[in-house]
Amino acid sequence: MKAPPREKYSSQAACRKMLIYLHEHELKAGDKLPTHAELVKRLKVCHDTLNTAMKWLVEEGVLSRRQRLGTVVAQPYPSFPRRAFWQVGIVAPPLTSSYFISVLIHCIHRHLGLRGFSDRTYMLSVNAAPSSEVTERHPEDFSGLVDDLDNGVLNALITPARLVTDKVPVCGVGSLHGHFGATIDHRLFAREAVTELLRAERRRIAAAVSHPQDSFGQEFARSVNEVRQSLGLGQDLESVICSNGIEHGHRLAREILARPRSKRIDAVIVRDDMTAQACAAVLAAEGGSQIAMAVQTNLQIPISFALPVLRFALDVDELAEKSVEMLLEKLLRPSRTPRSLLVPARLLAPDAMLTAG
Fold first, then answer.
1. By percentage, how much of the chain surpasses pLDDT 90?
2. Pairing of strands 63-66, 70-73
3. Of all residues in the chain, what percent carry a pLDDT higher than 70?
4. What is the value of pTM for the model shown?
């Protein structure tokens, strides 16, 4: 990709510095800016570059020039930016791993564009170790990411992967991994799913948790354990290791059906809708239709199930929007401790009344 002209790059950098200055100093609409000479000194830019940057910010509606008063703040950040002030890398796991990842990457790209970002997407390299063999990812695992970080092309990264780097801020989306951003409220989903199943008189409940290398699975497993302890369920709530995907959903169903009747569960909680769909199909076909299911589904792409289920719909667009908001807040206020938000999956009306089997 052709590098941008130096003048354009310098003016964009000056725009970013100016926006950061406005937010770090908490300037509001109507506040007057320091003199041009003072801004040159504070922002460490040349006069011509600052002139261009301020002209752009006037066009974006951030600044306003008033006769006799000088330049004042109109709004701290443009409502609908026409220029891209920031360059962000979207670091993506394989898009075929689930419906969730594909929709999430699309929504992230959309909200970045609405908030004044341009973006590049970095896919997992063919030479990278499989996800089942690693607990975290590094820039070397993604094609082209190391070069762009070393060349200063990126201002930040946003990713659902467990990515380790100190080159730029890393915003987590869906799962935080110690970063800032927006994550799924796994604990609320686990608690509400168990509560609804108990209300439906289901007493032996299993929660399908992923292998230890899956960070989403780790968080969900911790949430299940917390719910077990807080509700005093003991052995009535167990964890079953199950990776995501159609094949693993079939395997989960057959493991449930293979149990002796005295140890067979009467409800299962699954956080991946593709896995749950496959599991429900086998249960319905092979005599397990009495087993209730609670499933975290994708609001943007609803899917059907062969059994009545309790659906907890996750708004992936909301998750992406909140993550981009947290990323912008971090970039505009780099000196402050970044925030994190929890996004819940909300219970929808069940397909049918669940009764004891």
1. 55
2. antiparallel
3. 90
4. 0.86
